[in-house]
Amino acid sequence: MRVAIAGAGAVGRSIARELIHNGHQVLLIDKNSDSIKPERVPDAEWLLADSCELSSLEEAELDRCDVVIAATGDDKVNLVTSLLAKTEFGVPRTVGRVNHPNNEWLFTEAWGVDVNVSTPRIMSALVEEAVTVGDLVRLFTFRQGNANLVEMTLPADSPYVGKPAGLIPFPENCALVTILRDGQVYVPNDEQPVEAGDELLFVVPSDVEENLERLLAPSAHGG
Fold first, then answer.
1. pLDDT one-digit tens code per residue, 117-165
2. Residue 3: what are its φ and ψ, rounded to 5°?
């Protein structure tokens, strides 16, 4: 997979290293010459250019990219980069970094953003996740599908502790995607039981989140 990352700062370089480690081809783009440091990510391609300029993105051959990640520290740049990538080059998947929470509402399909990643929201979610049991914590939103990635730590008094996942009547369009237990990742199947203290990750529409909470932790939510 070919991935272009706008923004070659610490965030962009970290993403690039991870993607390269996973076998992907990565191009880092930045208009600041001080950020062009090929020695930091030697296996990446590098381009000194402004990702808000159409000519720069043509030079980057964005039409050959499977994914564009707008990861600069400027929300305006990230929005324009995503919009150009989607509308002018038909990039299948765009990911936009949200630096300021007040701007999160802009990072939608209307601006060419398939997935927005809000660092402040994720950090606050991780704090909440550390102190709450039985509450859903929204990690991020999939704009294209109007769905969210959410996490719940299953409380000990849940009626489904010890029950196979296939016997839990999850709400419609709700998908259990991962079970985290004792530092291990378990891919759920119908026979996989859930246990107290499991961290359950779901993809779920916003309008059924409350139903999911009440199902798994009724005592915590007035059930």
1. 876 666 555 555 554 566 777 777 776 667 888 888 899 999 999 999 9
2. -125, 130
Q: In what order do the strands lie in the sheet with 25-30?
A: 45-48, 25-30, 2-6, 67-70, 93-98, 115-118, 137-142, 147-153, 199-205, 175-181, 184-186
Distance CA 137, CA 128 (A): 7
Query: Smallest Cα–Cα separation from 154: which of 171, 176, 139?
Result: 176
Query: Tokens 């998908």, residue?
Result: 175
Q: Which CA distances in Å does 186 have to 72, 180, 190, 194?
A: 34, 6, 12, 10
Q: Which two tokens stand for residue 17?
A: 């290293």
pLDDT at 22: 86
**Full-prediction pTM beyond 0.90?**
no
Phi, psi of 198 (to 5 degrees): -65, 140
